[in-house]
Amino acid sequence: MYASKSSSERANKSDFKGDTQMNKWKASLALSAVSILAAGMVGCGSKNTSDASGNASASASGSNKFKLTVTSSMTDESRVEIMNETIKLFNQTHPNVTIEYNPSPWSEYAQNLKLAFTSGAGQDIVYVDDTMQQMLQKNNYLLDITDEVNSRGWADKQVPGAIEFQNARTPGKDYSVPFMTAPVVVYYNKDIFNKLNLTPPKTMDELNSIMAKVKEAGYVPMENGGMSNTPKMWSVFNMIYNQTSKDDVQQFYFQKGITPAFEKAIVSALTQVNDWQNSGYFRKEDASIDGNAVPTYYAKGQSAMVLGGNWDIPTYEGTKVPTGAFAFPAADASSQSHAIVNATDGGWALNADLSDEKKQAALDFIDTFMNPEIVKLWYEGGSTPTVKADMSGANASDLKKEVDQSIQSTEMGFFLDNAVPGLADIINKQLQMMSFHKTTPEQAWEEIKKEYNKLVLVAQGQ
Amino acid sequence: MKQEAIPYLKRIIKRRSPEKTNPLAYLFLLPAFAMVIWFMVWPAMQTFYISMTNWDGISPKRFVGMQNYIHLFTDEPMFAKAIKNTLLWVLGGATVPVWLGLVFANLLVRGKVKFTKWYQLGFFFPQIISSVIAAVIWKWIYDPTFGPLSAILDKLGIARPVAGWLGNPDLVMIALFVIFVWGSFGYTTMIFTAALQGVDSQLYDAANIDGCGAWGQFRHVSIPGLRQTITTVVILMTIGSFSVFDIVMATTKGGPGYSSYVISYYVYTQGFIVNRLGFAAAASILLTVFILIVSRSIILIREKD
């Protein structure tokens, strides 16, 4: 009993001591956990500017060798190859500069740029379209290169208006320099056209007549890809250019509002596309066809026409269907101007945090794209350069020559879905609903307008 | 005696749970605890904060309070459509794969089927494939011109929708749901197979003696015996159905129109396409709340039973 009493007393005392020790352990463990977390958060939260462009390491080491990081959305094999050749030529005059080129797919490109720049790891040279440029520039991530554009004579080396077009959202200030445009043309099946004695149309009436004849002959007048509706969307934009003035378009594109003339034009364009749908000018299974599968359907040889960009030239050449190209027709024969969907593809912009040494090298890198040898390389690869150069000796395919020939007398026009981020998805959804008669062109426009106004407020930070 | 008993009881209780008094146990738990805080709790707190801003992912954040939550319910018809589609998906996702799993598990364990291991492997095979790859494969299967489904139906002389399955607003949800069930019923089958093997076989013998047929044994022995497992699986499938995204992203992107818009895809569109990260964060917080309410309700209903 004594033993148990003393052991219970000892147990009580030791329990008390144990409790105190236990509490101290818990407190110290909790404190360790919090300290580790806090250290981690502080470490990860700080902007690591020295890694962004290697400024610190370059200047600290005093070495002339340094690296420039470059990114774009040109991930297709042919353009990656041309890019590598461009880098090789740059390195002939700049052997001390290593270009680290890492493109990422278009679908992730904007997000990757945002992540890179907000985390302090923004690339030194980035290829941006005008909305991405606006996104980075308004947050002071891009360098104003207006003076350099002037001092290096780049405006004179380019076709008139190209640099202004690329920098249209910041009039008077240049943040990027383009080197190619992205025209959208109509590719057509020459066999079907020859069989039906058709010639490329110059007016909308001629286009409608061709589609009716092709339909009657049992072919598919126009490929589309209803899951993304890109050709339909481009058709709508082209028809808007035919029916309204440049000012009305610019008001819409630069988020300044929607004019009545623009509204009338877009409703008319949507109505025309709806008529095409109801007339059976697209495949009956079009709604279930993905945009990426369109060339496969075209390759069956049963489709007369399809809208595509100049970046699709290798794809349609690969279908082995004899293919030609023409510009989307004007409204009528008396049309004074003929604008088509054909914007600068993008432009090279510089990170605002570049050191002087890196800035000069980066500007020299952009200058490489004005080199006639490089312009010829890109031209032969299917691109339409904005840089003035003699391409008569270039080794271009027949289709490439036809594409360039077809757009010669046309004016540049925006990809209107780029007016605000997210607009492409909304237009696509409304086109899909129209194809199932779940909405009319007027109702579709009302929905697009409502969302456009909302997205403008978002884009302007309100 | 009574006073001695209390400290004695305390010691007993403490001795019965030594891990609660052993600081070494906490030390071993620390890394997991830190990871949960760093990868789950902290991001959740950040998401909640972002949901109260109008952040676009790159500009400075501006605090807007509950504005995003209010707009979600007053100014976003697409969100309402996404909720409707998601609830339909949850209703189907919490029942069809569960029932299929129960039936197939019962057949494999209780039915006189040979090569049951091979069947289990076959049923589980879709789980090995990434859901995105599975969705891409099914997109090809559903292709109205090149897909094998159209070819088989044409060969059998069975009518099929002219516009295809994924492009038809009336059929798209069913078509996508088939992909979901195909990918998940193997998982539920496997769980129920394992659980069924824990049900006392004497109960089946007793039921057999009482004249219970196969259906009666399934209804009165298997299902009651698997009650807890069924609840768990239903909750897991509910959560999985609420967060379905990859199938929609890889196939229809919410289309045609908004017929297959689900909440997760809405969050993705608002956050990464439209650059309304604050708004998307609010939608994702609401999604989390829906999931918590539904799962908790399922548990409460089962506990009441």
Automatic annotation (TrEMBL), chain A:
InterPro entries reported in the protein's UniProt record: Bact_solute-bd_prot1, SBP
Domain of life: Bacteria
Name of the molecule in the record: Carbohydrate ABC transporter substrate-binding protein
Automatic annotation (TrEMBL), chain B:
Keywords assigned: Cell membrane, Membrane, Transmembrane, Transmembrane helix, Transport
Highest taxon above the source species: Bacteria
Membrane topology of this protein: Multi-pass membrane protein
Membrane-spanning intervals of the chain: 24-45, 87-109, 121-141, 171-196, 229-252, 272-294
An individual GO BP term: transmembrane transport
Domain ABC transmembrane type-1: 83-298
SUPFAM superfamilies: MalF N-terminal region-like, MetI-like
Main location: membrane
Signal peptide: none
Gene3D superfamilies, per database record: MetI-like (1.10.3720.10)
Entry GO terms, CC: plasma membrane
Subcellular location: Cell membrane
Assigned protein family: Belongs to the binding-protein-dependent transport system permease family.
PANTHER family associated with the record: ABC TRANSPORTER PERMEASE PROTEIN, INNER MEMBRANE ABC TRANSPORTER PERMEASE PROTEIN YCJO
Protein's recorded name: Sugar ABC transporter permease
